[in-house]
Design brief:
single chain, 632 residues, alpha/beta, eight-stranded mixed sheet, six-stranded parallel sheet, 23 helices, 14 strands, 11% strand, globular, binds adenosine-5'-triphosphate, RNA-binding, helicase, DEAD/DEAH_box_helicase_dom, ATP binding
């Protein structure tokens, strides 16, 4: 249980013995991926909805099945019962954090022994790790081995972080040594702390804390953390505030869709770490309210997303044209679970003598997530979804319904599905880029609290969000890009817990068949024979495409090790278009549509599409980026 869990879950006690540390699945005795019997997701879920299923029509499953459920207009009888939805403001964390005590006898944190609830932490060594670059600092086994400073170590104890996760073990020493870092690790494996700890520790060590802004009210943060969505920025801000508790380090968040005036006032009180979405940051810089002149640390979370063509121009402006110290004069840290080769090339412009680190395979999904793919035609999707939700509630402990995240392709589709679910007696809410910020926050809060245990979302919720107790991710509409799939399903199966991901697949998703099969095989998932068949067919016709990362199972991921790079074919300052032109297999996996192919997506339709994958494939380079269409 994380600290966040303990706040969200009224039944959970924030004591050390209940904390489930991150353990890779192959090290856990009798790993049970049967999520629906798993009390991690249900027993302690904050959702307490009870549904009376009387009168529900039965259904069968399988390819080509007709719908057995006739749900329209039917309610599930008994009124849904919710426990009191928590009134607490999830963003008001510092107050709650104060109430938690530091556990002084936490040997595992300070001593780094092999404790931690009897788990064998030495076995973490088994996780495949690739590092490349010169003079790579060695990994550590405990937080205490790194000089993070007492105040930060105390906060780590407060968070009940007993042991560093694999990405933290490897990346924190690298960052503490002042090296630039491009890091890749699976979803839910603790990347946020991996970049926050070195930043906080560095600010404390160098005493570079910013003064309250000067007479002309310009803020000079020493660290900048950029993320693609408002919700993710808020989440990182909350985490960074917890980690900075009682250290004097000031963390401020700036994101679009909310009044700028309050955010500017927060900046005036002083800021050491600014967490921001690119659009709002540019606005503040242009208003001369923020200067990047003093930046020592730059972190890009979801770095591949930040450097794809939706955000890349804005990021380039921020990093190269707005007083930001150059590479070498600042430390740059890029993190993501996916890192396509061509984005690595692009990112290398921003870095100096960097170390590449991959914990697990780049772009792989964790085998904590049990993946299922069902063949479902569009017209049957709603019935299938209803069946899944019914089954889920049947199997939930104490009749509770687990939190389920349903991904759809378009904003309009999200609203329609939310309405349909609600009309059919299933409390649902939706989040997408056309909702105003207050609606987005309300939807997320309602979902987190279990008040509406189904959240219908576009890709705006696909990356980074760490929502406790999400037991099931359903890809109602599959994304066009396998990386988006990896991030979406990564909303479950986090921090050592298991999760379930179900995808509805049809002929429309042919191009995803091959990478999906490869991803599932890699994560030791059972691949349905019909899907394997599709994968073969699609690659025979050249439409499938292989993985975007190349190389052997656990290698070939740092693009600098690729043949093109080493043979000198690669020009270090090449443009994005050049990079794409030499990128291996990217074109093949990107839905058979190259970046310089003219627009194929109906523009009107693109207006309602809220996914990077869909949008980006509909836009050529010289056209308007997609930021305005749902991302922040
Ligand atoms: N050392 C640790 N021990 C226990 N839990 C941890 C540790 N580090 C992080 N966590 C918890 O793991 C969860 C996932 O962490 P985080 O959100 O940073 O993952 P992530 O790798 O950034 O995921 P994503 O790729 O989806 O953005 C969080 O709830 C966090 O509190």
């Amino acid at each position: 249980m994380s600290w966040a869990d303990s706040v969200a879950d009224p039944y959970a006690r924030p004591i050390r013995s209940s904390w489930r540390t991150y353990v890779p699945p192959h090290l856990r005795p009798n790993t049970d991926n049967a999520v629906f019997g798993n009390s991690n997701h249900f027993g302690s879920s904050s959702s307490a909805n009870r549904f009376d299923r009387s009168g529900r029509a039965g259904s069968s499953r399988g390819r080509g099945r007709g719908g057995g459920f006739r749900g329209r207009g039917r309610s599930w009888g008994r009124q849904t019962q919710f426990h009191d939805a928590p009134n607490s403001d999830p963003f008001d964390i510092v107050e709650k954090f104060d109430e938690l005590e530091v556990i002084e006898d936490c040997d595992d944190v300070v001593g780094g022994g092999g404790g931690g609830g009897g788990l064998n932490f030495d076995a973490y060594e088994d996780i495949p790790v690739e590092t490349s670059g010169s003079d790579v600092p060695p990994p550590v086994n405990s937080f205490a081995e790194i000089d993070l400073g007492k105040a930060l170590i105390d906060n780590i104890k407060r968070c009940k972080y007993v042991k560093p996760t694999p990405i933290q073990r490897h990346s924190i020493p690298i960052s503490i040594a002042g090296r630039d870092l491009m890091a890749c690790a699976q979803t839910g494996s603790g990347k946020t702390a991996a970049f926050c700890f070195p930043i906080i520790s560095g600010i404390l060590r160098n005493q570079t804390m910013s003064p309250v802004s000067n007479r002309i009210n310009i803020a000079y943060p020493s660290a900048l953390i950029l993320s693609p969505t408002r919700e993710l920025s808020c989440q990182i801000h909350d985490e960074a505030k917890k980690f900075s508790h009682q250290t004097g380090v000031k963390v401020v968040v700036a994101y679009g869709g909310a009044p700028i005036s309050q955010q500017l006032r927060n900046l005036e009180r002083g800021v050491d770490i600014l967490v921001a979405t690119p659009g709002r940051l540019v606005d503040m810089i242009e208003r001369a309210r923020v200067s990047l002149r003093m930046i020592k640390y730059l972190a890009l979370d979801e770095a591949d997303r930040m450097l794809d063509m939706g955000f890349e121009p804005q990021i380039r402006r921020i990093v190269e044209q707005m007083e930001m110290p150059p590479p070498g004069a600042r430390q740059t840290m890029l993190f993501s679970a996916t890192f396509p080769t061509e984005i690595q090339r692009l990112a290398s412009d921003f870095m100096s003598n960097y170390i590449f680190l991959a914990v697990g395979r780049v772009g792989s999904s964790t085998d904590l997530i049990f993946q299922k793919v069902e063949f479902v035609q569009d017209m049957d999707k709603r019935n299938y979804l209803m069946d899944l939700l019914h089954t889920q509630c049947d199997n939930g402990a104490h009749g509770k319904c687990a939190l389920t995240l349903v991904f759809v392709e378009t904003k309009r589709g999200a609203d329609a599905l939310e309405r349909w679910l609600s009309m059919n007696g299933f409390p649902a809410t939706a989040i997408h880029g056309d909702k105003v910020q207050m609606e987005r926050e309300r939807a997320l809060k309602s979902f987190k609290s279990g008040f509406t245990p189904v959240l219908v979302a576009t890709d705006v919720a696909a990356r980074g969000l760490d929502i406790p107790h999400v037991a099931h991710v359903i890809n109602f509409d599959l994304p066009k890009d396998i990386d988006d799939y990896v991030h979406r399903i990564g909303r479950t199966g986090r921090a050592g817990k298991s999760g379930l991901a179900t995808a509805f697949f049809s002929e429309k998703n042919m191009t995803l068949a091959k990478p999906l099969v490869e991803l599932m095989q890699e994560a030791k998932q059972e691949v349905p024979p019909w899907l394997a068949q599709y994968a073969e067919t699609s690659s025979a016709y050249g439409s499938g495409g292989g993985r975007r990362y190349g190389g052997s199972k656990f290698g070939g991921r740092d693009f600098r090790n690729s043949t093109q790079f080493n043979s000198g074919d690669y020009n270090y300052s090449s443009s994005y278009a050049d990079a794409v032109a030499v990128a291996d297999s990217y074109v093949a996996t990107s839905n058979a549509c190259t970046y310089n192919t003219p627009v194929t997506t109906d523009y009107a339709a693109a207006g309602v599409v809220d996914s990077f994958a869909a949008d980006s494939r509909g836009f050529a380079f010289d056209q308007e980026p997609i930021v305005a269409s749902g991302w922040d």
